[in-house]
Structure formats: structure tokens, C-alpha cells
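User: Hi! I'm working on a homework problem where we have to compare a predicted structure to a textbook description. Could you give me the structure for the chain below?
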Amino acid sequence: MLGSQSQTQANQHTHSSNQQVTASKNAKARYFLAWRWHFYAGLFVIPFMLMLSLTGIVMLFDDEIEQLRYSDIISVIPNGAVHSVEQQMQAVQAKYPDATITQFVSAADPSSANRFNVRMADGESVLVTVDPYRALVLGEIDRSNSWYQLANDIHGTLLIGQWGDYLIEVSASLGILLLISGIYMWLPTDNAAKAGFLKVRFASGSRIVMRDLHANLGGILSVVLLLFLLSGLAWAGVWGAKMVQGWNTFPTYYTWGDKPQSTQTHASLNHGSEEEMPWNLEQAAVPQSTGHHGGSHEHHVQGYDSSQSVAIDNVIAQAERLGFTRFKVFLPQSETGVYTIAANSMAGDVTDPREDRTTHIDQYSGEVLVDVTWQDYSVIAKLMAAGVSLHQGDLSVVNKVLNLLFCIAFIVISITGAMMWWLRRPSKQNKLGVPARFEQDGIWKLGLVSVVVISLCFPLAGAAIVATLVFDALVVARSTKLREYLAS
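Assistant: Happy to help. Predicted C-alpha cells:
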């Protein structure tokens, strides 16, 4: 009897030990599978992460750079009464007789110049600064030749247009896979992970130091990085424009209501790549003026008789009555065009996204046609407005400084990740140094679900993952050299 009990206990102990060995084996296999995903995604994402962080820093300090470059033409000395905006416009028109004034930008404070966006005969636009106390043109700012514009073009398209936008969208989408797999490896689930969790072991060698910096910075800042990725992806050409932005274009009562609409969208009001219109209005149509606009006199600038339009000073007075403080006024450019008054946190007109407001005014009657405020935004549009303000560092000096630190941290994460691979790669073996592959029982459901969800939510990431699997099955599997190069 005693022998039977002892045998039973021994069998139970053996079964328990086998279960622990299997569980440990599967955990190790899952860890290395996550590491392989992290490694492959990192190979693609790291160069883009470095580019986005570096160009982001330049864009973050756009105002400071502009102040250094153009301080002599953007600062004024308050002196007496301010001339009317109409008089200031006349001074601009006299300076640029063959150009079209498209926009008035009110000064941020009494010691700053007013600005007028002027479209030249060749189609290019420049910002002309005017001393409001003397109605004197001070100079021009060519935004297309600014550090911000160059950084923004690289940040958004790599200077290669739509294909650059697609590549950046793929990298940002795969960045989410990189983030998820990184968090999985960072969490202290075994002794190796616990040893470096939330600490940097400076006495353990350069690779351990880089591993601790990479893992802990990435883990601690994972939510911040996710917010940066999502708010940036909302501007991308597929996930942003075709999916998220398309479903959140506002407002439905305006888009499908009885307001007369033009074929012009709000995005067409932007100057170059400057995002001056709210994200959720970009794809919506602009209304049309329906007041009296008889006559067919040719205007030497705008091609129609603008003398019948409401004077811009009256529009500005109306904007102030409506509660606008710092704002832009987009001038009508045709007989059916409208005045558009905009204060947009994404464009830096206001710092609090809850103060966003876009108002369209009939150029003849002065009637308010459409008035869109924060309260009218959808939930996603509100999140986007707040997210982009944080993304751009517009909320405060603290926001800007934190964003600078975040960009530096992302650069450190990228460089340490690349250096860790460089140090661990097989030297003189002509191998990439891919993390080892371990067999496991069954399918890792959590990992599979993560990849499927990312692929479904972010189509270009899904396309990249499918393309990689197809390449692996059709090319790598048939090439001995490639298999050896990608072996552990």
C-alpha cells in the first residue's frame, strides 16, 4: 500500500516537472519569437525613427529659428495708433502689384508685425510682414525656403512625394508592433528581465548598459511613443486620410445640409504643406457666398470685382465680436468665395484646442454661413486636436521641453538598439544576427492576435508583414545563402 502511494506521488512529481519544463520551453520560445519580430521590425523602423526624431526637433523650434532669421522684419516698436488692415493691404498691393493677397494673419502681440500671405504670379506664396503702426512693408518670409519646410518635407514624404509618405506610414505602423513586442520582453517575467528592470547596470559591460537603456526608456515611454505614432499616422495617406480622417470629416449637417457648397475643400486653403485648417475639416467642402455679386469688372489681381465685398476691417471687427483673439483671415478668391476666419490649435493660432474655431462669412452680406467650434468636433477629432497640439509642443514651454527630451530619448532608444545588434552579430560569419528560433507546442495565440490586429488596423503594416512572409516562403526558403545569412 505504501509502495503504491509512493509510486503515485513520484508520478505526480514527474508530471509536474514535465509541465514546468514544457511551460519554461514554451515561454522561452515565445520570448525569442517576440524578439525576432522586434528585430525585423527594428531593422526597418530605426532609420525612420531617427529621421522623425531629428526633423521633429527642428520643427519643434520653428518659432525660435524664425525669430533668429527674421527678427528685423517681424518685430516692431509700438508707436501711436494702428492703421487699418485695409491700409496695410494697400501697402502690400503697392509693393507687389502683380500678386494676390490670400490671407491676413493677426499679430501675436503689439510688438509683432502683421503678416499677409501673398501669392506671386508664378504661383509661389510668401509671407509679407507689415508694421501696423506705419502701414509699412518690412520684408518677406519665404516659408518654402525655411528650415521648418525642409524638415517638414522630410518628416512627411522623405522628399520623394507619395511613396515617401507610404514608407513612413509603414514604419510608423510597424513601430506599434515594435512597441508591443518590446513591452512583452521588457516586463519582468523571468530572472533575466527582473535583473535589469527599471535600472541601468553600469558595471556590467557596454552591451548590458545599452540593453538597460534601450529596454527601460522604451518601456517607460511606450505610451508617449504610441501617442506620437498615432497622432502622426492620422496625417498619413492611407490610415489617416482614407480611414480615420475620412470617417471624421465634419460637420455632417454642413456637408449634407442645404448650405451652398463649392468644389473646393478646406485643405485647398492651406499654403503649401502648412496645416492651417483643422484636421477634421480638411476633406469637407467650403461653402459659397450667395449674396449680391453683380457686375463683371475685371480685377487686375483676383479676376473679379472685389470692391463689392465686405471690407476686411469689417470682417475683422466681426471676428472680434464673435470672440476671436489671435486668428487668420482667408480672403475670397472668386465671385463665390468666402471669408474664412480660423483659429486652429494645429496651426498654432491658439494653444488650447478647446478654443478651435472656423467661421465662414459671405463676402457680400457678411452673414455667417458656417461656424465650427470645439463643441462640434467628434470624439476622434477632439482627440486628434489635443494629440497634435501635444505632438507639436504647442501647449506650453513645458510641453516643448518635454517633447525635446522625448525626441532625444527616441534617438537613444534607436541608437542603442542598433548598437546591441552590432555587438551581438556573428563576427566574420556573413550572418545578419537574427535572434534564434525555438520550436514550441501549439500556436502563440497572443502573438498571433497582436500581429493580426495590427495588420487589420494599419493596412500598410499588414501589407509589409504579408510581403515579408511571402518573401520568406518563396525566396528565402529556396536560397541556401539567404537561409544561412538569416540563420541565428
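For your comparison, note the following. The longest strand covers residues 125-131. The beta strands are 100-105, 114-119, 125-131, 136-141, 261-265, 285-287, 328-330, 338-343, 357-362, 368-373. Good luck with the assignment!
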